[in-house]
Design a protein that fits this description.
The chain is mainly alpha-helical. It has one domain. The protein is 58% helix and 2% strand. It contains 16 helices and 2 strands. A two-stranded parallel sheet has the order 1-2. Helix 2 runs antiparallel to helix 3, helix 3 crosses helix 5 and helix 7 packs antiparallel against helix 11. The protein starts with 24 loop residues before the first helix and ends in a 5-residue tail after the last helix. The relative contact order is 0.14.
Length: 334
Amino acid sequence: MSDIQTDQLPTSDSARGVFPKALCAEDARALSAIQNWRGALAILFQWSVIATAAFAAIWSEYWLVYALAVVVIGTRQHALAILVHDAAHHRLFTGRAFNDVAANLTLAYPLGFSLTRYRPFHLDHHRFSYSDCRKDPEWRYIQNNPDWQWPKSPRAAGRIILMDLLGLNILSLWRLLRQFSPWFIFLHTQAVDGESLRTGERALLLGFAGTVLAALALTNGWAYFALLWLLPMATIATAVFRLRTVAEHAGLTEEHELRSTRTVLPAVFERFLVAPCNVNYHLEHHLYPSVPFYNLPKLHRRLLAEPEFRRNAHISRMYTDLKGGVIREVTQRD
């Protein structure tokens, strides 16, 4: 998904509901340049916030600081997952092998899944999300899971988010994420569901797991690990993941490519809590997936110069605005 399509699209594309991507191809190509230092800085920032929050909680030994740390760490776990998404498009670092190793060790493995297991699922979502949704693995998953079928009534939506925050939906979420876990196929030498782990990744995964287990054993940090890593993942990260994911496509028409995906212009606090790493520019990402996350705001401004984009793009104001934001768009009265 890293190449920009430069062939001129037929003039009938607009009439068929397809945005003529050749209009902005040259600018998108320039914005697709990868800056390794920005990927490294993004990873360092998330882990620095996580470490600071954990240290503050442990040092204070005060329940309110622990509660705040759980919230902060949960939002940063979600940010790590967003960076895995960029790595899935080979947009985090220029060297593809280094991109995958670095993303696995610093982003995916700590969250319990593998970049190489996630990549085929996500790229198929891009390939078929508008052209043939029945082949889109994300669409197929939603059809079999009512909790992911939105819009919902305000009561049903509130119940699901509350259950996320209480950690009661973690098993349901695990059914989605377990297909990306490397551990379920670790011992398989033959491909399972089209995927198998290479010897190098098995060694990498064992080295990572061994290092973490040794560190926890030497520091007797099991309780802190459960409280400040597993708990945020099962509660805050799950709820934020739900809201952000629902905001991307739920409740939208498929009659036009620009209205099948939602871009959100979040408030400042939402950028930290819900939309880290410019993940709110999801429409722009679907149009030009080769553009790394730090250039998506520039791509958004460039696209706004095109009348067709301004006329048809689905752009929402905020996630949490109850009157006109995403929450209002994905909830409806019975």
